[in-house]
């Protein structure tokens, strides 16, 4: 089936499958692009840097093992090291070693928490404007159910 007139058919997916998948990709790219631009303009933070600060803020004491933080951010350890290095150079995050342990933690600094508090207003206002305000309460619950199901390992329905 072809998604739009003039396109070659994609035999691997039905039209609904293709358009649902394409819709997810296009929505993510559009929304993240806008959120990234707003965060950069207002706070000199990328979405990835914001998410790093936010994930630390969620943790007790604003602190998390680097390995665990990489998993939460869905990035490689190398990618996280680059993010932490940038944030550390701005005084927003500190690297903390535990005596007698190889593990290194990242910790949100006071400056990082102050910047994050301002950036959260920008970020979540954008999320509301671009996504959540455009859906009814029932649609939000449905979207929540769908995203929870897609995050879980398991067998397809149908």
Automatic annotation (TrEMBL):
Top-rank taxon: Bacteria
Gene3D superfamilies according to UniProt: Winged helix-like DNA-binding domain superfamily/Winged helix DNA-binding domain
PROSITE patterns for this protein: HTH_MARR_2
HTH marR-type domain residues: 15-152
UniProt-recorded name of the protein: MarR family transcriptional regulator
Lineage of origin: Bacteria, Bacillati, Actinomycetota, Actinomycetes, Pseudonocardiales
């Amino acid at each position: 089936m072809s998604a739009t007139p003039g396109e070659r058919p994609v035999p691997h997916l039905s039209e609904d499958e293709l358009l649902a998948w394409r819709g997810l990709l296009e929505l993510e790219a559009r929304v993240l692009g806008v959120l990234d631009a707003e965060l950069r303009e207002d706070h000199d933070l990328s979405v990835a840097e914001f998410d790093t600060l936010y994930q630390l803020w969620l943790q007790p004491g604003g602190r998390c093992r680097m390995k665990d933080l990489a998993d939460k951010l869905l990035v490689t350890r190398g990618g996280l090291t680059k993010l932490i290095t940038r944030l550390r150079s701005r005084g927003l995050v500190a690297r903390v070693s535990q005596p007698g342990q190889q593990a290194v933690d990242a910790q949100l600094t006071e400056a990082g928490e102050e910047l994050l508090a301002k950036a959260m207003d920008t970020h979540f206002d954008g999320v509301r404007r671009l996504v959540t305000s455009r859906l009814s309460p029932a649609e939000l619950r449905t979207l929540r159910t769908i995203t929870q199901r897609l995050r879980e390992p398991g067998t397809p329905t149908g």
